[in-house]
Amino acid sequence: MAILEVNNICKSFGSTEVLKGINFSLERGQVLAIIGSSGSGKTTLLRCLNFLETPDAGQIAVNGEILFDAAHTHAQSDAEIRQKRLHFGMVFQSFNLFPQYTALENVMLASILLAKQRPDYKKNKRAIHEEIQNNAMQLLEQMSLTGRMNHYPHQLSGGQQQRVAIARALALHPDILCFDEPTSALDPELTGEVLKVIRELADKHTTMVIVTHEMTFARDVADHVVFMDGGVVVEQGPPEQVFGNTQNERTQAFLSRYSQNS
Predict the structure, then answer these.
(1) pLDDT tens by residue, 137-184
(2) What is the rounded distance in angstroms from the CA atom of residue 52 to the CA atom of residue 82?
(3) Could you tell me if 24 and 32 are in contact, meaning their C-beta atoms sit under 8 angstroms apart?
(4) Which CATH number is 157's domain given?
(5) Distance set, CA 160 to CA 12, 41, 140, 156, 170 (Å)
């Protein structure tokens, strides 16, 4: 069974159709790369998966559980939406770290907020915080940020901030890690730092959905590639098909433009 199933997702903003019936699935432990030109709907799709936007139509299921079904919508509380978001860990293009918190505190924050809802929180507060802190420290060590844990975001490079953001996304042990163009705000050297971390996660069979403009990275790391254009999935398949043997003219034109600009 696929860990993620996306069926006929549609989304409009006013009279503008941004997503027009998106379909794909993802197996556990695989990496899905979503590519396409600016304005093709990639980021909106990712925001729909993470419940930052509400689709107008379609269905989203994780581990066989239907998280969203436009045919049976009803008002959901913020708590219900937050619970559904726990299936996804989100890494944003612009890091989105809290400037008033250190790297360690940024990684710990969501876990602490969730822990406060536990009935045993007050009784076991110290032990719970210690466990959360140890987990956050291990994640930052995994990101090669051992000496930067007590630094604030403004004291970190862009690549370091993005690695903190990845650690934060991993802290709640999500089913699926989502990246929205995680290197587009970075220079080439820092881009390499972040892509190295994502490659290591792929080697550990972390399930990931990655919106990216790094075509070489997508070809080398992804198990499945989705090419979007104009709000639709034009082509999808293994990277060797999409990058090396595509028969679709729109995919060919996009990849040709990319090769000319790189």
Answers:
(1) 999 999 999 999 999 999 999 999 999 999 999 999 999 999 999 998
(2) 10
(3) yes
(4) 3.40.50.300
(5) 35, 28, 10, 6, 15
Quote the CA–CA distance of 178 and 181 in Å, as a whole number: 10
Alpha carbons within 13 angstroms on the beta-carbon side of residue 137 total 8
Whether the CB-CB separation of 199 and 221 falls below 8 Å is answered with yes
Structure tokens, 52: 């930052």
Identify any residues that bridge with 91 across adjacent strands, giving them in sequence order. Answer: 179
**Is-contact 98 46, C-beta < 8 A?**
no
At 204, is the secondary structure helix, strand, or coil? coil
Q: Within 13 Å of residue 170, how many CA atoms lie on the same side as its CB? A: 21
Q: Which helix (H) or strand (E) holds 159?
A: helix 158-170
Counting every residue written for the chain, the total comes to 262
Model-level pTM?
0.92
Sign of CA dihedral 223, 227, 143, 183: positive
* Tally of domains within the chain: 1
DSSP letter at 215? H
- Tell me the two tokens of residue 104: 């360690």
* Domain containing residue 133: 4-261
Rounded distance, CA 13 to CA 246, Å?
A: 31
Model confidence pLDDT, tens digit, residues 203-230: 999 999 999 999 999 999 999 999 999 9
CA distance 170 to 164: 10
The answer to whether 49 and 210 have CB atoms below 8 angstroms apart is: no
